[in-house]
Amino acid sequence: MIKILKLTLFFYFSINILNISFGNEEYFRKGLDLYKDKKYDDARFMFEKSIVFNPKDAKSYLYLAKIYNYKKDQNNEEKNLSTTLLIEPNNEEALLMLIKIGLEKSNYSKVRELSKKFTKVCKKLCSENKKILENLDSIEPKNDSWSKFRQNLNNRFWLTIYSTNCKKNKG
């Protein structure tokens, strides 16, 4: 009798754990489909449900930030991007979105800081950083130390890209 009870409890908990893990992915997938269909309120609800089941789901926070960007709610966008970066510090898309917010707010020191980090982690969106740095140069008042810093950062950026490509070509 005790063995049957233990087996029943084991199966019950196993099934519930599987449902929870599949439920999280299902909510994210539905949210993504709704996002692609531009049904942002419904997508937001699904991403929030996904976060309830898995509070460390960086993708859900990132898509919530994208929704808030569309709705021009910069405060919530920034909160979700910050949370994304807490969970996944090398998320280049979140870094890029925060850099753009920093530019809009004229927070150039934050843009510089995020740009340094972005240069180290970029894989797909590297060209965007160069555009942002050029934009920052044209916006920010001329400052010799900043110009030297920016040139040094730009040189290191292209050197990193070059050395990465050399390693790929050798391997």
Please describe what this structure looks like.
The protein is mainly alpha-helical and 171 residues long. Helix 2 runs antiparallel to helix 3, helix 5 runs parallel beside helix 7 and helix 6 packs antiparallel against helix 7. The N and C termini lie far apart (61 Å). About 3% of the residues have low confidence.
- Rounded Rg: 22 Å
Largest sheet: none
pLDDT averaged residue by residue: 77
Give the oligomer, counting copies of the same chain as homo and different chains as hetero. Answer: single chain
Shape: elongated
Strand content: under 5%
Helix-strand sequence: HHHHHHHH
- Tally of DSSP β-strands: 0
Flag low-confidence runs: 18-22
Q: Which structural class should the secondary elements be placed in?
A: mainly alpha
Residues in helix, %: over 70%
N- and C-termini, Cα separation:
61 Å
> What count of helical segments does DSSP give?
8
Task: Summarize it.
By secondary structure, the protein is an all-alpha fold. The protein is built from eight helices and no strands.
List the main descriptive attributes of the protein structure presented here.
171 residues; mainly alpha; 0% strand; elongated
What layout of secondary structure does this protein have?
Elements: H1 2-36, H2 40-53, H3 58-70, H4 74-87, H5 92-104, H6 108-121, H7 126-139, H8 144-170
Helix pairs in contact: 1-2, 1-3, 2-3, 3-4, 4-5, 5-6, 5-7, 6-7
